[in-house]
From TrEMBL:
This is DUF2029 domain-containing protein. Belongs to the glycosyltransferase 87 family. It is a multi-pass membrane protein. It comes from Nocardioides malaquae. It comes from the Bacteria. Coiled coil: none annotated.
Amino acid sequence: MGSPKGGTVSDMTVHPTHDDPVVAALSESVGGPMGSRAGRHRWWTPVRVLLALTAVTFALGLLSKAPCAETEWQDTAQRYSHMCYSDVPYLYSWRGFADLNWPYTDDEAVRAEFDVMEYPAGISYWAWGTGYVTWVLSGAPDLDDPARDLPREGTLYMAVNAVGFGAVALLTTWLMAGVTRRRPWDAAGFALAPMLALTATINWDLLAVVFVAGAVWAWARDRPVLTGVLIGVGTAVKLYPLFLLGAVLVVCLRRRRWRTLALTFAAAAAAWLLANAPALLTGFEQWKVFWTFNSERGADLGSLWLVAQQMMGPDAWIEVDTINLVSWGFMALWCLGVLVLGLKAPVSPRFAQLGFLIVAGFLLVNKVYSPQYVLWLLPLAVLAHPRWRDLLIWQVGEVLYFGAIWFQLGGYLEPGDGQPSVIYWLAVVLRIAAQLWFVAMVVRGVVDPDRDPVGREAEPDPVRGPAGHEARTPAPA
């Protein structure tokens, strides 16, 4: 694809040593920023380098799980002291996947023995499918054999899932590198993220991340139907991709693109329904468990609700209905604020900026904020504000919380008098403060487009095709 001056897209690529002050400063130790005469390797393109970096980061994360894998996840103290915990090998047995049970079966014997999978349908399908792969790789053992080595199978199950997670991480990087053609290196913020290494295999959250990255990629390529499909399927995997429809709404209202709005929303609804159909048709009551479980749970780990409840004293209890009402009320006001911000901004905000702000608001007051939930924000944050200083500030807050949560669960932070840990409270607050810092940086880029690192490279306008000037039009009066 030719550039206006006869160059190539590769020639116009924004190099991070020219664009990011932190990277430019670090480059001084290896000869300084990239020069105009620097050669380009014929094989090591930016995307291939990014994929290699993702693979290294993911592999380092797997190495951090080695202490737990060596004990086949049976040492309950070690999983916290070595910070190598994962839900995956435990749920292999606890949810019946070791016995190849369909997660939405209503068989009375199965339901008497195993709890229903508390995650959305997409994760349940994956967990069930990888259970079959594990069974085959284990030599197809007799399911009724009391001598089955379930801890060994659980470790293999973890390995099978890790292979899939690695592929998902690579695909996510590839998609992110293609969102803004001249800025593939922005995806390095994902590829090198410490929290990608630390949290990618704690649970199945990474499966939804690739659909979020795909939706941003599809939107950047003027494909509203594909955007909707990816949001819909992503919502069937984890609820939060649904909030990307808020970004679609703001952009379409701003640009008065009613057909684009209708196509995206309709495609999302149809994709979500089709993805959920196997679960709905085979076990509606089991399918509802995800919704009832999350509606009925109280203040949980990582949330400001838990900190508030513990600070109120050992006998304090914040009613679940109160938490639900306040959380959703806050979320409604937050979304209204994002809508006003998007409509009143000097130029049309980018899709990733709006998506990040909405998802961040949801997490701020969620009833639980697990360490792996950072993955929900990671691709959106990197694309919304690709600045290493601010990314590192945010990631430091997440790393501090990552260490604190495992020490808290292991009992290492509990005071001798049996009171709740103030250190854990501080870790929660610092994590939220770091996230709010990054929110402020994204908002600053929306309010003042000259402070947006992606700058004047406007997104194309779906339906009308690439329209940089349209994307930069002032807010409607």
